[in-house]
Write a structure and sequence with these properties.
The structure is a single chain. This protein has a single domain, classed as P-loop containing nucleotide triphosphate hydrolases (Rossmann fold), CATH 3.40.50. 53% of the residues lie in helices and 0% in strands. α5 packs across α6. The protein contains eight helices and no strands. The protein is an all-alpha fold and 167 residues long. This is Sulfotransferase family cytosolic 1B member 1. Keywords: Transferase. Belongs to the sulfotransferase 1 family. GO terms for molecular function: sulfotransferase activity.
Length: 167
């Protein structure tokens, strides 16, 4: 899971760089679209509530939950938790190797080598951008952030999900 404000920024940049995508506007036009769920995969709010409900209603299903922010903060800890969840016994050097291979810059470089150039504007692969936590603060105006927070409170009023808004 990733905080929804950073998801909005990521989606905007991703959508803005896809050839023939049905959106070619500015950030100010994208925020209301995102809040309504008029984007790929629908509403972040609906999606998150559905997952939360499914996990609560089906405790017998083993689901590992982590956040992008937690993985950025301490990737090795996250990889170690995942190996324990999967009940896979790994030594520390293997876990560190997996962690190193899954770092954002490494994945961005590897993915850029594999992507089809012809589907992106400016022929620049754009599946990965910055990989930063808290970049939303560079995009949202105060009014947009306040609107987002109101929509969040309304849509997630019965949810226990509390995104980490870190810098």
């Amino acid at each position: 899971m990733r905080n929804p404000k950073d998801v909005a920024v990521s989606f905007f940049n991703h959508h803005s760089n896809i050839l023939d995508y049905d959106f070619s506007g500015k950030w100010d036009d994208y925020v209301p679209r995102y809040l309504k769920g008029d984007v790929d995969y629908g509403s972040w709010f609906d999606y998150t509530v559905k997952w939360e409900t499914f996990m609560a209603d089906n405790p017998e299903y083993p689901i590992f939950m982590t956040t992008y922010e937690d993985m950025k903060e301490d990737s090795l800890r996250g990889v170690t938790q995942l190996s324990k969840f999967l009940e896979v016994d790994c030594d520390q050097s293997f876990l560190q190797e997996v962690t190193n291979l899954c770092q954002f810059d490494r994945m961005k470089k590897e993915k850029a080598n594999m992507e089809m150039i012809g589907c992106w504007k400016r022929n620049v692969p754009a599946i990965y951008r910055k990989g930063e936590v808290g970049d939303w603060k560079n995009w949202f105006t105060v009014a947009q952030s306040e609107l987002f927070d109101r929509v969040y409170q309304e849509q997630m009023k019965d949810s226990k999900v509390q995104p980490r808004y870190m810098i």
